[in-house]
Amino acid sequence: MGTLNILVGVCLIYVAFLFLVAFAAERAALEGKGAWLRSPIIYTLSLSIYCTAWTFYGAVGYAARSGLEYLTIYIGPSLVMIGWWWLLRKLVRIGRSQRITSIADLISSRYGKSNLLAVGVTVLAVIGTTPYIALQLQSVTVSFDVFSSAYGAELTDSAQGSNALLVAAGLALFTIIFGTRNLDVNERHHGVVMAVAVEAIVKLLALTAVGIFVVWGLAGGVGDTLARIDASEIGQWQMRGDRWGTLIFLSGAAFLCLPRMFQVMVVENEDEDHLRTASWAFPAYLMVMSLFVVPIAVVGLDLLPAGSNPDFFVLTVPLATGNDALAMLSFLGGFSSATSMVIVAALALSTMVSNHIVMPIWLSTQSGGASVSGDVRHVVLLSRRISIAAVVFLGYLYFRLSGGGTALASIGLVSFAGVAQFLPVLVGGIFWRGATRTGAFVGLSVGFVIWAYTLLLPSFGAGSLVSQTMLENGPLGLGWLRPQAFFGISGMDPLVHAIFWSILLNTMSFFIASLVGFPSPLERLQGAQFVNVFEHSSTPQSWGGSLAQTEDLMVMAQRIIGAREAQNLFEREAKRQGMSGLLPEPSPDFLQRLERELAGSVGAATAHAMIGQIVGGASVSVEDLMAVADETAQMMEYSSKLEAKSEEQARTARQLRQANEKLTLISEQKDSFLSQVSHELRTPMTSIRAFSEILRDSDRLTETEKTKYSSIIHDEALRLTRLLDDLLDLSVLESGRVNLNMQSGSLKGILDHAVASALTGAGADKMQVVRDNQQEDLMLNTDLDRLSQVFINLIGNAQKYCDSTTPKLRIDVGRANAALVVDFIDNGSGIPKTEQAVIFEKFSRTGVQKVKGAGLGLAICREIMTRLEGSVEYLPGQGGAAFRVTLPEQVAMAAQ
Amino acid sequence: MNAKHTIPFLERQSYRRRRLIDTIRTLPVIGAVLWGVPLLWRQSDAADVVMTSDAIIYIFSVWLLLVVGGGWLARNLKRSDAEETERER
């Protein structure tokens, strides 16, 4: 009894440890430190819930009875994993892009978000899984029983029953705590996954340890073990070919369709890339798991008395050789296999039950529909929790009612065959656009009826649910409908018979009903989405949002995904739509995104129905339908690409044309510039040459004449120098190579200096300058010399060109449009409109050529102001000639 | 210009990658065929029957082959993925 107590203690410690692991993982994920939680290794290990207690204990029993046939159960999944590129990759991508929460959700989403289909799949999954859960409970209690009887303490039936109840309650508790902590939009449970991964390691270690002990400890090495195997009663290859092939197919199909496998493989998948690692690592895991099965079976058959249950050789062989620690480890391995399966299966089933059965019913009983206020999250969570408890309890009930006998042992394959009925609908749905809801419904129904009729009911034993006469003669004497010999084809293995007919007729009726029926638009859209998931990963179906009340949607979303999450989502959407505030427009785009978020919590069908209640029905736009027709879509895409390209080319051509025009213009300007420059240079040159020739050639010149001529030469040379200086200045400014000498100074000082310089040398007609000192009291930070050059030029021009009898210049400083403006307004006749356009061009001079100058002044001014990031322009309508100098605000601001 | 020396331009890496994916696709088929071989073995009542130890060695060799092959292909795929993104940059 002492060892038994230790066993109970170890068990409790182990369970506590699992709770701790799950809790730590949840914490780490919450704090964002869970990078290691998302490693491909954890993903691979979590897949190992495929190996339940049925495979941990049962595989050895299976091998002891039927030789190597047990390998088929591992070979099928290995092939599926190695062929990940074909199917799993697509399945995982669809699961992620559509926020799929379960296999029922996937099938219902694919076939037009049909809730009927989801309910059907859920019910069938529960029927298929319940016996399996019962099997796990049985394995835990029986293994406990085996342990205790080894120590001479026979357990009574009631003790066994209470053990099972205890285990069931513990498992339900664990699943509720870590499976329904939160309503995650991605439906991921780090705690559960982590615990499952730990259990995967434990069961692998346990089985390998027992295997190593058997091979090297008992059998005496690999060679001896092989010899013993050949000498045993399973020493010769005896395999029915049909069973070998069918079972490989069956286990592969079940691997894809089991709700718990779907949960860990697709729903809990963090990263598509993990599949790449799992594609070889998981087959390796399975290989190691199955490696020591035959040696253990053979040694067990040898060692233990005839008639002992081979299902528990993993436990009884170490016990019989007095290896208690090893037996304990092995017990923990079996315990791990059983518990992890039950946890994940309960989680997967509860999601399905709550999303597809409880929530729709609850919603329809709510009188106000989806828009009534009040938190719905607790309803979802509560329904999940109750579903978990119900599923586990159902398993317990099944275990009690079936008596826990040998009837359960065969249930593993029966259960596999049941869920394998999903395969045609699943594979057809993601590879064939023509698959319809009607087809799926008919196919599933036919498959399940045949499965129940040919396999499930007879599995309870002849005479219990199916009478012996019915087995032999068929129902109502219809011989061709005998449950184990359809159409009179007898002699098939019952399991092969059931799988063959159920899958065949399932597939055929699914196919034919799909061909005959006509799918709804939504169905076709979803079909295109699923089949072409790698081409486009968005949902094309759109809502007609005009009737929707965003506020109602907000109320509903808050109840499902939580107030803060919902507000964040709505605010983000509003921002995306370029609106202020919290409520976005109910655009189809937004509704789609909202639906997908909700689908993560309550499943696609329910989310669709809830939004439908508020919005008032989905609408399928013409564009959506076009997207369905793939060829059309491709053509449209192609032509729109072409259109875009030709538009781009047109744009380029336009740009080229503009550039060409500009070049032509510049070339013309250059020509005229050159001719003007040569003209300007030539005039002073001519007079310089003429007067210098006079000075050289005639000796009879008076001093005054000499002085006069040489001063003319001097003046002309000065004019030339000035012209060349200006040209140089202009070219420097135009090429942008000018260095600005930034400094600070007052505007008043600059103007004082400019007025003084510009008016130096003016005689009697010196103009009067009117200024306002107060306005000018400003500090500037710019190139003061250049600015002053501009002012001097403008004042000088006014002095030169103002034709009033009493010339007067007003200098106004002010602000306009966040810029500093300095206006120079004289009282002359101004510049005629026709000439206003050209005064800033080079060599342009207005009116009569009464004054000297090359006509470069204003051109230089304009260039300078451009460099100073301001401008100078003619200000019309001021009574006289008026120029406005504009300086950017920061020039004045910076100095203040 | 000698026609023999001009090789038509093919993007070597993406071509390799596509063939790599073809290999990944073929691997389960190879596995299915190899694991289908036991269907051809003689049953126990025949004269030269296959012993279980030989069957174990054969089946597990196939398994090991698939695991190692799958692992090697998966690693190469990762590397070619990395190269692909490298070149796109």
TrEMBL record, chain A:
PROSITE patterns (UniProt xref): HIS_KIN, NA_SOLUT_SYMP_3
Major localization listed first in the record, in broad terms: membrane
Keywords, in A-Z order: Coiled coil, Kinase, Membrane, Phosphoprotein, Transferase, Transmembrane, Transmembrane helix, Two-component regulatory system
Subcellular localization, as worded in the UniProt entry: Membrane
Enzyme Commission no: 2.7.13.3
Catalytic reaction equation(s): ATP + protein L-histidine = ADP + protein N-phospho-L-histidine
Keyword GTP-binding (UniProt): no
Positions in coiled-coil regions: 628-662
Entries under Gene3D superfamilies matching the protein: 1.10.287.130, Histidine kinase-like ATPase, C-terminal domain (3.30.565.10), Sodium/glucose cotransporter (1.20.1730.10)
Membrane topology reported for the UniProt record: Multi-pass membrane protein
SMART domains per record: HATPase_c, HisKA
Superkingdom, natural source: Bacteria
Protein's UniProt keywords contain Ribonucleoprotein: no
Domain Histidine kinase: 676-891
Entry-linked InterPro entries: HATPase_C_sf (IPR036890), HATPase_dom (IPR003594), His_kinase_dom (IPR005467), HisK_dim/P_dom (IPR003661), HisK_dim/P_sf (IPR036097), Na/Glc_symporter_sf (IPR038377), Na/solute_symporter (IPR001734), Sensor_HK_Regulatory (IPR050736)
Residue ranges crossing the lipid bilayer per the database entry: 6-29, 41-64, 70-88, 116-135, 161-180, 192-219, 244-262, 282-305, 325-349, 382-401, 407-432, 439-460, 498-518
PANTHER family: HISTIDINE KINASE, TWO-COMPONENT HISTIDINE KINASE
Protein family: Belongs to the sodium:solute symporter (SSF) (TC 2.A.21) family.
Protein name, per record: histidine kinase
Organism in which the protein naturally occurs: Shimia sagamensis
From TrEMBL, chain B:
Keywords from the named record: Membrane, Transmembrane, Transmembrane helix
Transmembrane portions of the chain: 20-41, 56-74
Protein's recorded name: Uncharacterized protein
Organism: Shimia sagamensis
Lineage summary: Bacteria, Pseudomonadati, Pseudomonadota, Alphaproteobacteria, Rhodobacterales
